[in-house]
Amino acid sequence: MKITLAQVITEYSMGNTALDGFDIPKELFIQLLGKYFNDKNSSTLREEVMCYISGNNPNPNKLGYDGEGSADENKPKNYDTTNPKSKKLSGAGNYSDMTLKRNDNFINDNAVIHIGGFVDGKLAYQFKVPYVGLSDHFKKQLDKRLPDGDKPNHYLRSMNFSLPALKLCNDVELEFLSPDIDQYSGFMTKTLYTYLKKLKG
Q1: What are the structural domains, with CATH classification, of the chain?
Q2: Whole-prediction pTM value?
């Protein structure tokens, strides 16, 4: 009888963490990776890939920056070709529940934003920009939402950045561009594709 991924996951969950009695075929491992990489509710694996590309160790804690012992933030987006509602990769990203104090901390820590685009869990591109390079763009959003400064239980729920804002930054640096980038072009905006080619030089 052929073993299934569901059986392996269930066996592990029920306490057989060494998977004694199971000979796990390679295709199940690949299937598990694909499932995990495309999980819309978890970006853990995608963030670990981005840390590897940028030379950082992943932060094992949920709080703090994504890079361990660094001020690096990862902003991965994944295009799932099996999901008809997937939005094309555009270089955009966001921060949730932002405050003026938290924003100041990012600036003072010289935080770096790493922006990654995945297609079916495969890294298509990654580039980085200093957080401070977007500070004027962020300040406009914060001032609009928090005109009287920080108050308890008041946040900017989604502080966004987009490719037009990134184009105004001088210190954007390409970290990775897939050799298959032309094959991924249909899953990203034309503007982003052109921008990535320009970054490559």
Answers
A1: 1-37 (no CATH), 42-200 (3.40.210)
A2: 0.88
